[in-house]
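Final report, closing paragraph on structural work. Over the funding period we assembled a curated collection of sequence-structure pairs, and we close with a single example.
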Amino acid sequence: MSESLTPNEQIVRIDKSILRGTRPRSIGYNARIETHGPRIVDSVVRIKVANGAWGLGWSNIGREEAEALIGRKTKELFHLPEGSKPAGKPIDLPLWDLTARLMNLPLYKLLGARGKRQVELYDASIYIDDLEMSDSETISLFRSEIESGQEYGYKHFKVKVGRGARWMEPEAGLRRDALVIRTVRQACDPGAFLMIDANMGNTLNSAKALLDLCADVGIYWFEEPFSEDRPLNQALKEYLIEQGWDTLIADGEFAPPPSFFSMVEEGLIDVVQHDFRLSGLTWWRSVAADLEMWDVLCAPHTWGSYIERYHHAHFAASIPNYALLEAAPAHMPGLIEDGWSFIDGKLIVPDTPGAGIAIEEKIFSQGIEDRDGFSLRL
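Its predicted structure, as stored:
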């Protein structure tokens, strides 16, 4: 796509609104952090240009940064085909939405439309909620959590493990991790993907021991088994191959080391998971092309946001090496979904211009009045 096709409009307004939603239950511990709670908060920015067009998306830009962008032309911040320039990265997602709307294209088509418009989601809200429970109580709890996720339309699930890293004695934690994994597998549909996530709470030995205990379960990927380390990652990969298991290693969400992508290229990490909001769509678009050459999958981390799933799903529909989209049941008041549908565990990406979302004006205005919100005009 030619640089000359990039719209060049003056930014005349930037609004930042804080949206607050709820989850159907309080979310518990992971291997490192205490209770996450029942609430969800999204920082949403809407940029308007002189011809009346606008773009919307997650952004945590501060007031001073935004003030520096008022009055600037979009070509100073964004160019095709690459995306945001350094000055535009704080509003990367709104700029992509704005550009697609100005060109009257759905975002996935602007990005390339090389993937599937039916994007598989998984419920990532199966946390460590059982620390004071017996085994029988634990089984009952996680069966009910899977049933709840299924009622919201989810088919695939990711389970937090690593209880022995902080919350339980190592052996007891390992046994409980395995019990929960087996319970979830039995509660899922037979063809469902099941992932586990240790938030770096395992050692190499405890990671291997957990896989041994769940050898017949069918784990699609093991996420963040331990901090990325070439000898340990290589040993785990060799162990998986020796056992004949096809479990993938997923990593990259949390402060990956400088050697991370060399480990990916060497085949020690199969699924790359840098955060979608913080890394940005522009960054992910560039990296996805390299990962495709290496036969590696993309599955960006998304926990903590609701609205980011829409831009994210457009990205998923634009590349051939996308895996699964992280999500969880939640309610975000005021969200207008233009053409979106969630069918059989899949988010269907629409052909409406841009990312296909908006916020009811009353709700958006309330969020501007939040202590972290603001409204700036030229």
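The longest helix spans residues 170-187. Residues 156 and 342 are 14 Å apart (CA to CA). We thank the funder for supporting this effort.
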